[in-house]
Amino acid sequence: MDKGKNLRRRNKSRVSGAEPGLLDGRQELRPWGRAWEVDWFSLCGVILLLCLAPFIVFFFVMACDQYQCSISLVLLDLYNGEATPLSIWNKAPSFSWTIAKLYASWVTFQVVLYMCIPDVTHKLLPGYVGGVQEGARTPAGLINKYEINGLQCWIITHTLWLANHNYFHWFSPTIIFDNWIPLLWCTNILGYIVATFAFVKAYLFPTNPEDCKFTGNIFYNYMMGVEFNPRIGKWFDFKLFFNGRPGIIAWTLINLSYAAKQQELYGYVTNSMILVNVLQAIYVLDFFWNEAWYLKTIDICHDHFGWYLGWGDCVWLPFLYTLQGLYLVYNPIQLSSPHAAAVLAIGLAGYFIFRSTNHQKDLFRRCDGKCSIWGRAPTYIECSYRSSDGGFHRSKLLTSGFWGVARHMNYTGDLMGALAYCLACGGGHLLPYFYVIYMTILLVHRCIRDEHRCSNKYGKDWSRYTAAVPRRLLPGVF
């Protein structure tokens, strides 16, 4: 702990980033990155999430397993005394060593794909950026290198899955659904092991001490992370691996397992299940196709690695991002053609806005503003900032295209996609709509958090940008 305090003092004296702005003829430096200090409101939120998040996941999974995905029936039984949290817990399948070995094999397989098979897809697929790529500059001025091979890992994994289904028959395609609750125990164990290891590592042997942040509060440090980019060796990056694998690669496999279970139970797969599979597969493939671009997003560029990312990627993502498919196993819904068409249209429109917005920013960055957006030269705000190593850097904030409509139109498109997944499940139950409710809260909070960081980083230049683009998500509204 003393080592952490000393490191914190040293970093504070150098400052973890800056915004431009003159003070007595010198650049005024302010914190860049996540908070140094923790207020009581933030601390209470952190403790509540640490305590409640695992039970929220358990609640939704048990609602489906024991109550056909009806939240109201669970609450009614609890209110009337016909069930207790303990009785629901006792009905749940327990931990299984067999499933634990299977899950350990799955994670090990993804580690091998990530670490041992250099990317070749970028040599075969025009337009795809893979192989060794540089990330964004960290607050301490470091630029990490990454082996981008997520698309290759996804292709290999799904090729083996389909080969098993069609030829080898090593396991049932419903294996994930059939062992969903035992898998919940396994993912929780991994999530806590990873988060705890990253926490201890930050104190004892951090990868880059200059990018660590110690708040002095153990709960906040554990949840939000201390290390910016914890690594083992040169290439195993915790943040990239657990953000992108094994959770997101599993996302499409989980949905395929749900569809297979629908086929097994009812003899058919509903168009709603097909829509969920297709729309979410587009999102997953987009993530891997643009994995190099992902290195420049807030997850990699701003968030430290702690329980929030470690446990969240192991448990929260695979279990709650796939609620629509799980719901449709218990409640098969065949949508009318107009309903299905509307869901597809909203989903595709959301994806178009999401991808076009991100593409415009990526194009603008790669060409240093020398490009065309919506048929004309882009407009932008010139800005500058300092990293904690004392380096002075310049940047440009785009105000053309979707970035001139609202400051986070990529989030707007993301929310449209989330809404489409939920609308595919009809309007009979609240449970499948948890995803869009959660994503709305998450992305609005992320808007505010990201803009606070940018304000600290860019200072008066950020004020000029917000004056040029006054809305965050919805033009003329918010």
UniProtKB/TrEMBL annotation:
Name a Pfam family for this protein: ERG4_ERG24
Q: What is the protein's species of origin? A: Electrophorus electricus (Electric eel)
Its GO CC terms are: endoplasmic reticulum membrane
Sorted UniProt keywords: Cholesterol biosynthesis, Cholesterol metabolism, Endoplasmic reticulum, Lipid biosynthesis, Lipid metabolism, Membrane, NADP, Oxidoreductase, Steroid biosynthesis, Steroid metabolism, Sterol biosynthesis, Sterol metabolism, Transmembrane, Transmembrane helix
Q: Where is the signal peptide?
A: none
- Return one Gene Ontology term, BP aspect: brassinosteroid biosynthetic process
Q: What is its main location?
A: endoplasmic reticulum
What does the UniProt entry say about where the protein is found? Endoplasmic reticulum membrane
> What gene does the UniProt entry assign to this protein?
DHCR7
The similarity comment for this entry is: Belongs to the ERG4/ERG24 family.
The protein's role, per its UniProt record: Catalyzes the last step of the cholesterol synthesis pathway, which transforms cholesta-5,7-dien-3beta-ol (7-dehydrocholesterol,7-DHC) into cholesterol by reducing the C7-C8 double bond of its sterol core. Can also metabolize cholesta-5,7,24-trien-3beta-ol (7-dehydrodemosterol, 7-DHD) to desmosterol, which is then metabolized by the Delta(24)-sterol reductase (DHCR24) to cholesterol.
Matches recorded under InterPro entries: ERG24_DHCR-like, Sterol_reductase_CS
For the protein in the UniProt heading, the enzyme class is oxidoreductase
One Gene Ontology molecular-function label:
7-dehydrocholesterol reductase activity
Is DNA damage among this UniProt entry's keywords?
A: no
Annotated catalysed reactions: 7-dehydrodesmosterol + NADPH + H(+) = desmosterol + NADP(+); cholesterol + NADP(+) = 7-dehydrocholesterol + NADPH + H(+)
Record membrane topology: Multi-pass membrane protein
Q: Which Gene3D superfamilies match?
A: 1.20.120.1630
Protein name stated in the entry: 7-dehydrocholesterol reductase
| EC number from the UniProt entry | 1.3.1.21
Q: Where are the transmembrane segments?
A: 40-63, 180-200, 265-285, 305-323, 335-354, 418-444
